[in-house]
Amino acid sequence: MTTRAGFVALIGEPNAGKSTLLNRMVGAKVSIVTHKVQTTRARIRGVAMEGESQIVFVDTPGLFQPRRRLDRAMVAAAWSGAADADVVVLLVEAHRGVSEGVERILEGLVNIGKGRKVALAINKIDRVEAPVLLGLTKALNERFDFFETFMISAERGHGVDALRQWLATEVPEGPWLYPEDQIADLPMRMIAAEMTREKLTLRLHQELPYQLTVETENWEERDDGSARIDQLIYVVRDGHKGIVLGNKGETIKGVSKAAREELEEFLGRKVHLFLQVKVRPNWLEESERYSEMGLDFKDGNT
């Protein structure tokens, strides 16, 4: 049998369902999934096997109108991920249709799409009636010459198998890029930090998810098979530290417990997780923080 392997970039607006689709395709949780917009900062690669094909997914940050350095670095990372991929899949939310953001992405695809296959995946199809779906499909294909169109629900799994099977035939022939049992090429330290950041984002709602970051400072393998993980949560103001800690430390305890349980499930062993909150007023302007997130600091320049 001929083996195939290639990179597939998932692009779309924030909250279009890219991370949910990635996790569904890979069959494990490798990308942060919340109801918050712009939660995926780094291009997370998840690896899916389909027959003799290895599909390496690049889950890009959502494409949106950037306002500050971190925004610009995220958008640059998204377009870079698309430009480096063998196949690009544009996710559009069925109920939102052709929004201003989708219009901007379609304009960007004119350049990125040259010489590579671009597929359209209309997501969250359970939210609209069939005539609306048909109208949206027609409108989008009139704006860009998509190679294929798929109707999916990433959350429920509808249509995802058909999309994965198509991708398996479209990635180039060649040897596999990763061991068969590997599901992500992010370092575990970064995956662990992402899991904690997700729990903080969910717990803090609208308060400050965009102004904090999490880094895994230390990872110690213990003789009993467990792991000790020390993480730092950086915030920009003293007031934010209080919010993260919560009344009598309740918020940070809840976050730590939820993150630890998910890490234990992911790793299949005992985890000792220690979180510390530090005020770092200028972390959004520090190149090291961007490196930790897998972003290029220079991409944030105006």
Automatic annotation (TrEMBL):
Its main location: cytoplasm. Residues 123-126 are annotated as: G4. GO terms for molecular function: GTP binding; GTPase activity; ribosomal small subunit binding; small ribosomal subunit rRNA binding. Residues 4-173 form the Era-type G domain. Residues 12-19 are annotated as: G1. GTP binds at residues 12-19, 59-63, 123-126. Residues 59-62 are annotated as: G3. Residues 38-42 are annotated as: G2. One of its GO terms (cellular component) is cytosol. It holds the Pfam family MMR_HSR1. It is a peripheral membrane protein. The keyword Nucleotidyltransferase does not apply. InterPro entries: G_ERA_dom (IPR030388), GTP-bd (IPR006073), GTPase_Era-like (IPR005662), KH_dom-like_a/b (IPR015946), KH_dom_type_2 (IPR004044), KH_sf_prok-type (IPR009019), P-loop_NTPase (IPR027417), Small_GTP-bd (IPR005225). Residues 204-281 form the KH type-2 domain. GO terms for biological process: ribosomal small subunit assembly. Residues 152-154 are annotated as: G5. Keywords: Cell membrane, Cytoplasm, GTP-binding, Membrane, Nucleotide-binding, Ribosome biogenesis, RNA-binding, rRNA-binding. NCBIfam families: era (TIGR00436), PRK00089.1 (NF000908), small_GTP (TIGR00231). PANTHER family: GTPASE ERA, GTPASE ERA, MITOCHONDRIAL. Monomer. HAMAP family: GTPase_Era. An essential GTPase that binds both GDP and GTP, with rapid nucleotide exchange. Plays a role in 16S rRNA processing and 30S ribosomal subunit biogenesis and possibly also in cell cycle regulation and energy metabolism. Belongs to the TRAFAC class TrmE-Era-EngA-EngB-Septin-like GTPase superfamily. Era GTPase family. This is GTPase Era. The gene is era.
